[in-house]
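Quick one, probably user error.
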């Protein structure tokens, strides 16, 4: 079970992005504060000065610690005795690498939204810097924070479904079904702008979540892809749908579907893993339920909060069975894991084993390698392409 942090031990946190109009900004705030590990004390919340100030006032941030850009924020905060110890970056994709580098150079730990970068070369540059230390670069692949996803990983590692043979994962949403970016909707405008989103908008937005979830649950890497990337909404400048066949390094085969034009769908994230003796099924809209389907035995429905689940699932749980937990709690698990890793680094001690799977820059690099391989495969008429 989760426990609240001691208020005197809260880490001082800054935001890049996350203004009042940002839905993901609200999610980050709730997640960072839920377990009491962080206190928001500084930020550049919006490019517009008035919106920046309005957000700071709403969040209770001292006016002296509102900044006009991330470079100024990194420099000034690093020089303060009470400066931020970590920064959360939730700006458009093109900001992720330059903002991360600015804070890493000053020894400030980074918690960044996915994807890590807008290109594989950019991701490599960032990872090379991270490997030099000392600061950490963590990534908010928040779906790996769900207790039943951590249970699924443990079950597969223990051989509960035998040898993994097939994986079906999809993140097929409907938020881009209509060309709202052509009507001035900002949240979709940058997502469908290749200069801000990267070479594949749909894979950078939802595809990398599906990719990371597959890797996290199965413990396997994708070695080759055969991809078709499509633009299905007329006039759109980016792709909005991807069908990708997969070959995994353990010999399994799979399929990944990423879309934001799946009309009628809601969130649309789910994963099925088929082994030699059974299978697992999890759907994000019913996150407390994990189906374990044996081939030659009765099927089981496992639920969050039960006493017989793994330590990994229990560690990610806050309240007893029958009281629902959801997205904010899963996102908060990533923040809590990040807090433990950051404290362990600063205190020069080993971190708790249960938090070492927190997504980081290396995961982000693999995500960008996956995107690049899919783009190359699509350009080559879907030919099988090696993931670097």
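Nope, works fine. Designed sequence:
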């Amino acid at each position: 079970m989760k426990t609240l942090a001691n208020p005197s031990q809260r880490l001082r946190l800054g935001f890049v992005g996350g203004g009042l109009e940002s839905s993901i900004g609200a999610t980050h705030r709730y997640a960072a504060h839920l377990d009491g590990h962080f206190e928001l004390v500084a930020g550049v919340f919006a490019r517009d000065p008035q919106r920046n100030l309005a957000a700071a006032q709403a969040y209770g941030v001292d006016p002296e610690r509102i900044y006009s850009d991330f470079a100024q924020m990194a420099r000034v905060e690093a020089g303060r005795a009470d400066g931020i110890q970590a920064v959360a970056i939730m700006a458009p994709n093109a900001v992720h690498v330059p903002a991360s580098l600015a804070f890493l150079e000053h020894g400030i730990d980074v918690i960044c939204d996915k994807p890590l970068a807008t290109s594989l070369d950019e991701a490599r540059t960032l990872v090379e810097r991270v490997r030099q230390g000392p600061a950490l670069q963590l990534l908010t692949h928040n779906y790996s924070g769900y207790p039943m996803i951590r249970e699924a990983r443990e079950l597969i590692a223990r051989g509960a479904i035998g040898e993994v043979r097939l994986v079906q994962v999809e993140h097929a949403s409907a938020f881009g079904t209509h060309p709202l970016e052509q009507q001035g909707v900002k949240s979709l405008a940058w997502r469908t702008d290749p200069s801000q989103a990267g070479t594949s908008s749909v894979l950078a937005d939802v595809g990398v979540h599906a990719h990371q979830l597959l890797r996290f649950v199965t413990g396997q890497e994708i070695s080759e892809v055969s991809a078709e990337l499509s633009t299905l909404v007329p006039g759109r400048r980016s792709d909005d749908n991807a069908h990708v066949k997969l070959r995994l390094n353990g010999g399994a085969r799979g399929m990944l579907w990423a879309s934001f034009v799946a009309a009628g769908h809601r969130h649309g994230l789910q994963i099925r893993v088929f082994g030699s003796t059974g299978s697992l099924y999890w759907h994000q809209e019913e996150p407390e339920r994990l189906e374990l389907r044996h081939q030659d035995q009765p099927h089981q429905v496992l639920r969050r909060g039960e006493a017989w689940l793994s330590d990994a699932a229990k560690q990610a749980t806050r309240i007893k069975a029958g009281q629902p937990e959801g997205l904010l709690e899963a996102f908060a698990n990533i923040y809590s894991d990040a807090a433990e890793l950051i404290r362990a680094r600063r205190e020069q001690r080993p971190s708790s084993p249960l938090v070492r799977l927190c997504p980081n820059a290396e995961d982000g690099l693999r995500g960008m390698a996956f995107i690049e391989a899919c783009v190359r495969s699509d350009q080559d008429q879907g030919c099988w392409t090696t993931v670097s």
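The CA atoms of residues 141 and 359 lie 6 Å apart.
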